[in-house]
Amino acid sequence: MPMDHIEVIYFHKDQISCDVDAMVHTLTPQEFERHERLAFPHLKRDWILSRGGLRILLGNILAQDPASLHFEKNRYSKPRLKGSELQFNVSHSGDYIVYAFTQHRELGIDIEKTTPNFASHRLATRYFSEAECQSLNNLTEKEFSRAFYAIWSRKEAYIKAIGMGLSADLKAFSVDHQSSRQSFESPTLCMEALHLAEGYASAICYHGETQLPITIRKLTSLAAPMLRTASLT
Question: What is the dihedral of CA 217, 219, 223, 226, to 10 degrees?
Fold first, then answer.
């Protein structure tokens, strides 16, 4: 994959054609244990689709067996691929799972199902910066919900890109819900809103001074040509 390119891949969980049983065998014993601890069948399937899907996509990009890939975590528990410059991030909400891949530049992606009854000024005051809260004033209910989720998804993408997740101070930076693109100086980041599905807000954020071309692909099938069964014991 070229270094000046970001690939965003996503799918609808109920519309993707895949062999879930085969995907289980891409998981490590630790990943399989986590899958087994989940209480409900739909959560188990979602975990397999998310983690197994990540392994298959990485394996196809790198031309490696998905089961052979090893992950490590930074101090804030953000996963990365061990021994590779390929950067990735994953997000899921509602019916969708979305992945982002690029070389060398750390990145974060987020997707949020827009549930109008969830968006509120109380949550905005708790998690958004003063400038972001002010930008939400004097909006209609529909405008407020759209702006709320635009801010929420962009802040999530930002804190994932800097590798801190929810350890970051959400009030320490501001995103602009009225602009589809935004840049930051400290740290040096680029952000872009994505439009993946009706009823969802999404954004991507990545390190660097210049915007990168972004390719977006919606999958209808997920397969691993190099799939090999891994031991779960």
Answer: 0
Helical spans, DSSP H, in the chain: 20-24, 29-37, 41-47, 53-62, 121-127, 130-135, 141-161
* Residue 83 domain flag: yes
Q: Could you give the dihedral angle defined by the CA atoms of residues 36, 42, 45 and 50, in that order, rounded to the nearest 10 degrees?
A: -100
Looking at the domain assignment, is residue 94 inside a domain?
Answer: yes
Residue found by looking up tokens 């399989």 in the block: 32
Distances 184 to 63, 87, 161, 176, 197 between C-alpha atoms, Å: 35, 20, 12, 11, 26
Helix (H, G, I), strand (E, B) or coil at 36: helix
Residue 211 is part of which domain span? 6-222
The structure's pTM equals 0.93
Count up the domains in the chain and report the number. Answer: 1
CA distance linking residue 210 with residue 77, whole number of Å: 27
Q: Are 153 and 176 in contact (CB under 8 A)?
A: no
Contact between 102 and 5 (Cβ < 8 Å): yes
For the chain, give percent helix, strand, coil, nearest 5: 35, 30, 40
Structural domain includes residue 105: yes
Angle at 142 between CA 160 and CA 110, to 5 degrees: 15
What does the pLDDT average to over 179-207? 96
Q: What is the mean pLDDT of the chain?
A: 92
To the nearest whole percent, how much of the chain has pLDDT over 90?
Answer: 88
